[in-house]
Amino acid sequence: MKNVKNLLILIAVAFTFAACTNLEKILIFQDGIWNVDQRTNEVYVSGILNVSQTDTLKDDGTIIFNKNLTGSYTEGDGDTGTFTWAYDKEAEVLTVVEDGDSLFYDVIDTEFKAQKLRSETVTKVLGIEYRDVRTLEITR
Questions:
Q1: Is residue 127 in a domain?
Q2: Does the N-terminal or the C-terminal CB of the chain have fewer CB atoms within 10 Å?
Q3: Domain enclosing residue 91, as ranges
Q4: Euclidean distance between the first and final Cα of the chain, in Å?
Q5: In a domain, 4, yes or no
Q6: Measured between alpha carbons, how far is 14 from 83 in angstroms, rounded to an integer?
Q7: CATH number of residue 99's parent domain
Q8: C-alpha pair distances (Å), 39 with each of 8, 34, 60, 128
Q9: Residue ranges of the alpha helices (H) in the chain?
């Protein structure tokens, strides 16, 4: 009987370990108000970080995600806007559309009340490559 009990405990531990190591990155905000703890914009010109166009803002406002896939934001300086959003679980990409422009955010890190999102946009102007990297760290 003791061996059966030990075997059951071993199986339970194995299932617990398997469940913990097989965590799927999921977007936890289907709706709600999120605080922008930090927003970082980095601009690279021909692969070199352009410090004059790079900034990090802390406590930079709020973002509201509604269940109907609409949302709004208020930046730290008081600017506001609205958007629509969608999340692709397979690709782990959040799409935000504002004024017809789409931004695609990769979900970098997910915790119970925190998200880290990253977007990268590359454009070429007169043969020069500009890469804009945005990182958002948001919490409930």
A1: yes
A2: N
A3: 26-139
A4: 48
A5: no
A6: 44
A7: 2.40.128
A8: 48, 13, 7, 25
A9: 2-21
Residues linked to residue 85 through DSSP beta bridges, in sequence order = 96
> How many folded domains does the chain comprise?
1
Output the CA angle 79-72-24, nearest 5 degrees.
Answer: 125
Within the chain, strands assigned E span 32-45, 48-49, 55-58, 61-65, 70-75, 80-88, 93-98, 101-111, 114-125, 128-139
Residue with tokens 């703890």: 37
**Burial degree of 57 (CB within 10 A; 0-12, 13-18, 19+):** middle
Q: Which pLDDT tens digits describe the chain residue by residue (140 residues)?
A: 444 444 344 444 444 444 444 344 555 555 789 999 998 999 999 999 987 767 788 888 999 999 999 999 999 889 999 999 998 888 889 999 999 999 999 999 888 788 999 999 999 999 999 999 999 999 98
